[in-house]
Amino acid sequence: WSWLSPATGRPVGVKGEPYLPEEDRRIMVDALKPVDRAVLGSTTDIYVTVVELRPQVIALGFNQHWDEGEIARECARRGVPVRVVRIGPRPGEELASRRIVDRILQRASESAR
């Protein structure tokens, strides 16, 4: 099973204010083919979702600031042994929500001229 938890609350602030509300992002992610279910995590403790879902693997995006070793240790401490991996950037990736919104704004600006 592939479960994904889009950033919520404070972690999102690291990258700036999101364009879309949390629930809209969850719905968008839930619609992706590789994702079986998207869930919103706790806004105060990222490990609450891990303890509830008990994943075997946690995959971090290339631009997420979390430390893989620290996450693995904290998960183990909470009784959830997990493998933590980091996914590298994909060249030409056009599915990042910021890029999508930027393209929409650019097209709207061009059509308004």
TrEMBL record:
Keyword field: Transferase
Key word Transferase present: yes
GO terms, molecular function: transferase activity
Protein name (Swiss-Prot/TrEMBL): Cytidyltransferase-related domain protein
Organism encoding this protein: mine drainage metagenome
